[in-house]
Amino acid sequence: MIKTRFTEAFGVEHPIVQGGMQWVGRAELTSAVANAGALGFLTALTQPTPEALSKEIARCREMTDKPFGVNLTILPAINPPPYAEYRRAIIESGIKIVETAGYKPQEHVDDFKANGVKVIHKCTSVRHGVSSVRYGVDAISIDGFECAGHPGEDDVGGLILIPCAADKIKIPMIASGGFGDARGLVAALALGADGVNMGTRFCATKEAPLHENFKQQMVENDERATDLIFRTMHNTARVAKNKISQEVVALERGGAKFEEVRHLVTGVRGREGLETGDLDAGIWSAGQVQGLVHDVPSVKDLVDRIISEAEEIINKRLASFVR
Amino acid sequence: MIKTRFTEAFGVEHPIVQGGMQWVGRAELTSAVANAGALGFLTALTQPTPEALSKEIARCREMTDKPFGVNLTILPAINPPPYAEYRRAIIESGIKIVETAGYKPQEHVDDFKANGVKVIHKCTSVRHGVSSVRYGVDAISIDGFECAGHPGEDDVGGLILIPCAADKIKIPMIASGGFGDARGLVAALALGADGVNMGTRFCATKEAPLHENFKQQMVENDERATDLIFRTMHNTARVAKNKISQEVVALERGGAKFEEVRHLVTGVRGREGLETGDLDAGIWSAGQVQGLVHDVPSVKDLVDRIISEAEEIINKRLASFVR
After folding, report:
1. Inter-chain residue contact B313 with A255, CB threshold 8 Å
2. Which of A180, B86, B137, B197 is an S-S bond match for A201, by CB 3.0 to 4.6 Å?
3. String of DSSP letters for B137-175
4. How far away is chain B from the Cα of A57, in angstroms, using its nearest Cα?
5. Residues B81 and B194 in one domain
6. Contact B63/B90 with Cβ under 8 angstroms?
7. Do A154 and B224 count as a contact with CB atoms less than 8 A apart?
8. Number of C-alpha atoms within 13 angstroms, CB side, residue A80?
9. Is residue A311 exposed (0-12), middle (13-18) or buried (19+ Cβ within 10 Å)?
């Protein structure tokens, strides 16, 4: 067993988190993560309505009696989703842990805290981590350059970002971006984190509600098989390298305007390709950790393996170096 | 003390390397690193001629009786330096450890090995690491995205690059790029490396032959104070963010041609600014680890601190997590 102040503060067995993932953060995966003793999060906005989220929470409860949370990602939008209603659904469902991400979460943090919900805020820079502490959150999740999805625009690798954050942030901290095995977990703990978040690695598990083709692709891909897109829009995303991501990269390198890039991606990010397993039909988040994904185990086998190997790295490998 | 198969194979006290650094890799720094029990390298091409290199090796020997090495970086050039003559100078000076870097080192590796010189080859990708093993080198130094100087074009963070390399490379491996403190050393060992290389961190020491202004700048800079330049020339370099680096970034973002970028940087990369301490007079390599540089200690104090803190992280922090 590996226990940190994170496992203690959040009442989970292992210092491993499955944070919010659009489309994938459903009851199948989150309940499996909870049953494995790690902390899983349903993704609120994967559900079309607050009512659907309430039902998904109830469905997840039927699949596990261990704690799990809900991710609420706040993005600026012309027609934003009804965030306050999603928040009420979370609170009224009796969820006790929330992962927030995105812009200006203060009103959400205040309401969650007033209702006895612990908040982990995800951010991609030290300065935003420091702000999060001021928001009153209980922990931060700091997401480095290697991550799937949105790494921010600073491009600071986890090797640097984690200890820099640890120097300034004294509440529990989850290291995110580039984690998928025991070596990474021990490295994160050495760098000053209290646990790790895994996204891409949890997508390549039996229980992840994803077409088999995507899981197989993650096994086959190496650490170079991602692209950074939407940099020119200051909304950088790390995605699996495929036909469409390469077209976006070429457009952006060629100095294409916002509208041209948007025109290319409009319509291809939908869910149809996800359901049919057509790897080139859309743009899919994936992290560099693909290079460390070599199998598609059950969530429990993955978590057990990471913990037992981490114990071995600490007790045997590292201990043997000290004379 | 921290002992790994690297310290054993190379006969050094600590698993810490100060690899080649143009202009800085001189006897003052390398002898201080050797005296501190780490492995320092003079940089061959910092010396104007092979004869000058022989003299610098002799000068370094006067300053330490511990082992040190020489870095030989091989770059393609229209008028290349006399590499074979530098190599002879190294061998005839009785140097027993060489760090090679750059393109197609086979003839150099062959000659060094035939003369009883151990070779560490520095590379920036797993595939080049695998090739290096075939060259017959004794160890590799794998340099990740966070590093100062040339990170290659793959942009894989050390958190991923190191374990991916460890999965495929079975000879001793030094992790490079983003290392500057005990947390990083322990992380590298956990990720599968046998030691770390530090460049930027060793530049911010009392003995580094660098104007005080640069050392102070490293202390003041945070992890975001670097720029990646020359990407459009497929010769990416990570440098300290300053007036000139920002001009290059703007030119490259604007789609400038090779000749325009070259015109801007021609003349500003010289040594005058280095000597006068004019921070905006040139382009200077610096890594993201600047964010972890908070002081300018002696080399010995730095090395001793890293080793004793690393022992504490392994024996106390990490050990306390395992129940």
Report:
1. no
2. A180
3. -SEEEEE-TT-SB---SS---HHHHHHHHHHH--S-EEE
4. 32
5. yes
6. no
7. yes
8. 13
9. middle
Size of interface A-B (CB pairs under 8 A): 168
Residue B238 phi, psi dihedral angles, 5° rounding: -95, 125
Residue reference for tokens 């869910």: A271
Is residue A148 in some structural domain? Answer: yes
Please list, in sequence order, all residues whose beta carbon lies within 8 angstroms of the beta carbon of residue B136, skipping any fewer than 6 positions away. Answer: B109, B110, B113, B119
Residue A139 scores a pLDDT above 90:
yes
**Alpha carbon distance A322, A292 (integer Å):** 27
Distance CA A191, CA A175 (A): 9
Strands B237-240 and B226-229: antiparallel
- Does B263 share its domain with B177? no
Q: What digits encode the pLDDT tens for the residues A58-100?
A: 999 999 999 999 999 998 888 899 999 999 999 999 999 999 9
Task: Write out the residue range of the structural domain in which residue B107 sits.
Answer: 5-210+293-321
* Burial degree of B323 (CB within 10 A; 0-12, 13-18, 19+): exposed
Q: Measuring CA to CA, which residue among B270, B276, B250, B272 is closest to residue B261?
A: B250
Is B27 strand, coil or helix? helix
Q: How far, in Å, CA of B213 to CA of A56, rounded? A: 58
B148 in contact with A, Cβ within 8 Å: no
Please indicate whether residue B91 or residue A269 has the higher confidence score (pLDDT): B91
The conformation of residue B2, written as its DSSP 8-state character, comes to B
Kindly state whether residue B283 falls inside one of the protein's structural domains: no
Percent of chain B residues topping a pLDDT of 70: 99
CB of A144 less than 8 A from some CB of B: yes
Phi and psi angles of residue A43, each rounded to the nearest 5 degrees, phi first: -105, 115
Same domain as A228, residue A176: no
**Rounded to two decimals, what is the model's pTM?**
0.97
**Could you give the CA distance from residue A38 to residue A40 in angstroms, rounded to a whole number?**
6
pLDDT tops 80 at residue B267: no
Q: Considering only alpha carbons, which residue of chain B is nearest residue A153? A: B224
Structure tokens at B299: 């080399």
Q: Which residues pair with B101 in a beta bridge?
A: B73, B122
Q: Which of A139, A130, A180, A148 is nearest to A21 (CA)?
A: A148
Cα four-point dihedral sign A261, A262, A268, A271: positive
- Polymer length in residues for chain A: 323
Note whether A72 and A82 are same-domain residues: yes
Measured at the alpha carbon of residue B105, what is the angle toward residues B93 and B236, in degrees to the nearest 5?
A: 110
Residue in this structure with the two tokens 């000879």, named with its chain if needed: B171
Taking only residues 177 to 196 of chain A, the set having a beta carbon closer than 8 angstroms to any beta carbon of chain B reads 177-179, 181, 183-184, 186-192
Give the strand pairing for A226-229 and A237-240. antiparallel
* Residues B25 and B48 sit within 8 Å (Cβ to Cβ): no
- Do A168 and A24 belong to one domain? yes
User: Is residue A20 located within the same domain as residue A122?
Assistant: yes
Tokens for B227?
A: 């720029």
Range list of β-strands (E), chain B: 16-18, 39-43, 69-74, 97-102, 118-123, 139-143, 173-176, 195-197, 226-229, 237-240
Domain count, chain B: 2
Residue A131: the pLDDT is 94
d(CA A39, CA A19): 8
